[in-house]
Amino acid sequence: MSAERFARTPAPPYYAVIFANQRRDGDHGYGATADRMVELAAQQPGYLGIESTRDAAGFGITVSYWESEADIAAWRRNAEHSVARQHGRDEWYEHFELRVAKVERAYGGPAARGEGA
Amino acid sequence: MSAERFARTPAPPYYAVIFANQRRDGDHGYGATADRMVELAAQQPGYLGIESTRDAAGFGITVSYWESEADIAAWRRNAEHSVARQHGRDEWYEHFELRVAKVERAYGGPAARGEGA
Fold first, then answer.
1. What percentage of chain B carries pLDDT values higher than 90?
2. Do A53 and B61 touch (CB under 8 A)?
3. Which of A67, B39, B71, B95 has the fewest other C-beta atoms within 10 Å?
4. A110 within a domain of the structure (yes/no)
């Protein structure tokens, strides 16, 4: 059931960082850094989980979940993350859109069949 | 630059429906219905755009953007969408997590380099 691909988030409210991105061709160190960022994010205060996928054309969506906006801001200021973000802008991403959102409602399925949203 | 993969959303606030899902094996009518839902969603009041991707293992994330929670609720009640959602629960998805979130901040890049988040 690939449960490890889904974030085990608590009941709302909490925050989501929605990162949609188009990779450039070639790795240029991306893979190792991406793995490291997932590992490092999980160690930050307020981290709740992450969901991430990318298709063969290099279009990816990563959503990370956080307890508060302050936790997101702190992760943004993390030194190693800041270096990775600059590599992203310079080398890895053709384009990206980042959105910070407050999760207000959530449900899962199919087990939750019939429950309201 | 694959701009068509990104939603051209207005300045926040607006709403996001974050739908993370694991497909089962086999199409079972999924592809045609998914295309139709994208087409139908775009005709609904308050629709702002959609971003969607899925990897080779069948793990997908689709984020649709809407002006208001009322627009999301109306789309949820759409008859054709309701039938598709039931097919999703019965046939297409091994598991999914759906979250409704209010987008509070957004920025894109790399062009927006140096701008705050």
1. 90
2. yes
3. B39
4. no
Gap between the Cα atoms of B117 and B105, Å rounded: 7
Q: Does the ipTM surpass 0.85?
A: yes
Give the per-residue pLDDT at A117.
Answer: 42
Those residues with Cβ within 8 angstroms of residue B47's Cβ, 6 or more apart along the chain or in another chain = B41, B64, B65, B66, B67, B71, B75
The torsion angles phi and psi of A82, rounded to 5 degrees, stand at -65, -40
Q: The domain that contains A39 carries what CATH number?
A: 3.30.70.100
Is residue B113 one of the residues assigned to a domain? no
Helices (H), chain B: 30-41, 69-77, 79-87
Structural domain tally of chain B?
Answer: 1
- Give the gap in angstroms from C-alpha A61 to the nearest C-alpha of chain B: 7
Interface of A with B in 49-108 (CB under 8 A): 51-57, 59-61, 63, 69, 76, 88-90, 93-108
CB B94 within 8 A of CB B23: yes
pLDDT (tens digit per residue) in A51-82: 999 999 999 999 999 999 999 999 999 999 99
- Tell me whether residue A67 is in a domain: yes
On whether residue B112 sits in a domain, the answer given is no
Residues of chain A with pLDDT under 50: 1, 112-117
- Are B78 and B40 a contacting pair, CB within 8 Å? yes
